[in-house]
Give the backbone structure.
Amino acid sequence: MALAAGLAAQYHLNFPSTAAVANSRDKAKTMALWGRAGLPVPRSRTVTTADEAARFFGVVGGSCVLKPHTGTGSELVLSCDSEAQCRFGYTCIHNALDRRRNERLYRGSGTATPGILAQERVNGQEYSCDFMLENNVVTVLRLSRKLPAPNAPMGTAGGYLLPAPFPPDVDWRDFRKLLGASARVLGIRRCIAMVDFIIRRGRIVLLELSPRPGGDCLPHILMNCWKLDMLTLALDFAQRRAIHWQRPAGNTRFVGLRLFADRPGTLKVFDADALTKDPRVREVHLTRKPGHAIRMPPEDYDSWVLGHVTFAPDSTTPLDQQCATLRSQLTLKIEATHG
């Protein structure tokens, strides 16, 4: 995103500025700007020592989350339920950032006293949304409910449900106003953006915003659910072409189910035949092949992701049970790595 913003500025192309991208990439900056503007955010503070992290736990009076200022997804995001866990979690993230100090994503963080963001943990249903902002008008393109991932790090999405019913106790007009404000406060005036938020006791709490559409399995769900090609739409938007897409009538639900390895090692057998034969499944997208080396979080947050499945859930079985059944139909053999 930073490179794209720099190129856009050099060639006078329409794209969020480098400052706006920096504001959205740095979680501490995002929280500070949103908080000063009066937008609903978790209580947050940058901590530079393990003791500061422990003291923050006392300030919020309950569970908290530690994460790097920059990063992606659930990488190095830890949930802490005690002062001792806060101290331990801070040390783990500090050491991990030091090992990643030459990685561009974390460059500048792996110093002697890296900036780590502490936040109160907000309990509630988490959502993900794509929206388009142009001429101060917000158009919601997608509202998805995040599904939990079993036995996964804090913040890992196990999948997405589309469309997600809009909570009845949240006003739609206020929601659209909040989306527009969340982008403008970061310096974004025109974009397609993705925002994550939690609804706690009928109130929205903002988590993060990226000036790009949602990735991973989300474009596949949109294509299956509404025949919406998000890449084409994003290109049309960037070229200022007229966008005529409208959400089709009907309310057929689809789930993008992410597939994970359950242990480290070398992938020996990877077979999705049983999945493809399930009548609920519309698409199986595998991103790994036999021979792939798997490392597990917190060592590696990418190599354990094996792909995703798009399926239309039935209305008679709990959704979490259907997700577990489909994951179990993936034939997976992993050989332990020795030495």
